[in-house]
């Protein structure tokens, strides 16, 4: 899945918190800030864990203020080689 999270989501430890939550849920993928001010996540894992992550994305960490979460299903081939979860540089 690909998620785009909008609102006050940069400068509030959103990437670090999202990475921690994703790892606890056993998901693999990455998270990064976008130049638009949004945060992008690409995740792979079981449907229940992805659903729990999406619920968390709507809340975010303490100082965030999420206004929107967009999601799209990605082809499995795109996600096939993912393992672990990383915080990527802004893009």
Descriptive account of the structure:
The chain has helices spanning 14-24, 47-59, 76-79; strands at residues 2-8, 28-33, 39-44, 65-72, 85-87. With 91 residues, the protein is an alpha+beta fold. The protein has a five-stranded mixed beta sheet, with helices on one face. The longest helix has 13 residues, at 47-59.
Question: Quick recap of the structure?
Answer:
The chain is α+β, with helices and mostly antiparallel strands. It has helices at residues 14-24, 47-59, 76-79, and strands at 2-8, 28-33, 39-44, 65-72, 85-87.
Radius of gyration: 12 Å
The amount of beta strand, in percent, is: 25-35%
* Span of the ends, CA to CA: 18 Å
List unreliable stretches of 5+ residues. Answer: none
Helix tally equals 3
Shape: globular
Oligomer: single chain
| Helix fraction by DSSP (H/I, runs of at least 4) | 25-40%
Mean pLDDT score: 92
Major sheet characteristics? 5 strands, mixed
Q: What structural class is derived from the secondary structure elements? A: alpha+beta
DSSP strand count: 5
SSE succession: EHEEHEHE
Spatial ordering of strands, largest sheet: 4-1-3-2-5
List the keywords:
single chain; 91 residues; 5 strands; 33% strand
Strand and helix layout:
Blueprint: E1 2-8, H1 14-24, E2 28-33, E3 39-44, H2 47-59, E4 65-72, H3 76-79, E5 85-87
């Amino acid at each position: 899945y690909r998620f785009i999270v909008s609102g006050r989501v940069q400068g509030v430890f959103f990437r670090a918190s999202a990475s921690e939550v994703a790892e606890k849920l056993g998901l693999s993928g990455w998270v990064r800030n976008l130049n638009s001010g949004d945060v992008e996540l690409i995740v792979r894992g079981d449907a229940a864990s992805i659903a729990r992550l999406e619920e968390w994305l709507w809340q975010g960490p303490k100082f965030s203020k999420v206004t929107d979460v967009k999601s799209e299903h990605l082809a499995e081939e795109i996600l096939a080689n993912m393992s672990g979860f990383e915080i990527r540089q802004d893009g």
